[in-house]
Amino acid sequence: MKKIIYILLPIAIYSNPCYGLEIDNRVDYVKSYNTYAIQNMKMFKIPASITLAQGILESGSGNSELARKSNNHFGIKCGSKWSGGKTYHDDDAKGECFRTYESVLESYYDHSKFLTENRRYSDLFLLQMNDYKSWARGLSKAGYATNPNYANRLISIIEDLQLYSFDEAFYTSTPVQSHLSKKIQQTITLNGIHMTKVNEDDSYYKIAKTHNLTLRQIHKYNDTKYGKHQILEKGDLVYLGPKRFRSKKKKFIILSENTSPLEVSQKEGVKLKSLMRKNHISSPDEQLRKGEKVFLR
Fold first, then answer.
1. Cα separation of 142 and 176, whole Å?
2. Among 231, 249, 188, which Cα is nearest to 38's?
3. What digits encode the pLDDT tens for the residues 232-242?
4. What is the pTM of this model?
5. Does the domain made of 183-239 have the CATH classification 3.30.200?
6. 2-168: which CATH topology?
7. In sequence order, which residues have a C-beta less than 8 Å from that of residue 129 and are 6 or more positions away?
């Protein structure tokens, strides 16, 4: 009898097809989307472990109907301010409205925006980046999900898959708010507009918080869109106010290298749409060639 028990016990544990399938799905999910989570961690200072664990839990490792058909990996509902695509599913109530996205990347980006722009999650950004347990409990306390065991489920996923390892490369031991007070970006003026040069590890969110602006304002001033996944690099210029319709000092410039309309707009402090109109440029993605004359007024 002892031999029979010894043989059957491991079979009972490891031959469970649901158990093996769930683990495999989660591992595949992490392999597919960890780069998205890491990019968003750098931009928004949300631990990658938390983002991945939420994605796994909310989307069933990418296999839920909402994830497969609408690219919504975080169960984010429409809300009164949402103007994008919509779909309807039964959740806490029947026929609730959920956001739809053109890509999974867009879903990840919107998830980070959702957390940074919603006041009820603001306390999360006072936490240390490696404290995934407090982040998980904070999300649950703020009401991200109705399941009372939500935090424990996130923590279990993070520890089972060792997702905390993704946080270690970028984690800072200082809370975001404290870090901001010690490292204020240098403010300069270009074309009569206040702007800042990006420091290492800066993000749009951090710059907005430092200068008492909203994330929406920062994107608007710099002609960037929420749906566009743009990572700031050291030395980049970020405007803290709206750019001007024309240059105050220059009539035109001669390009010294190939560039884009947006890059010229940022370097000269002229609104992108105004720059395109003055130069009959049809698309912001159009390539401008070295030696080309670009009018600024």
1. 19
2. 231
3. 788 888 898 88
4. 0.54
5. no
6. Lysozyme (1.10.530)
7. 41, 45, 47, 167, 170, 171, 172, 173
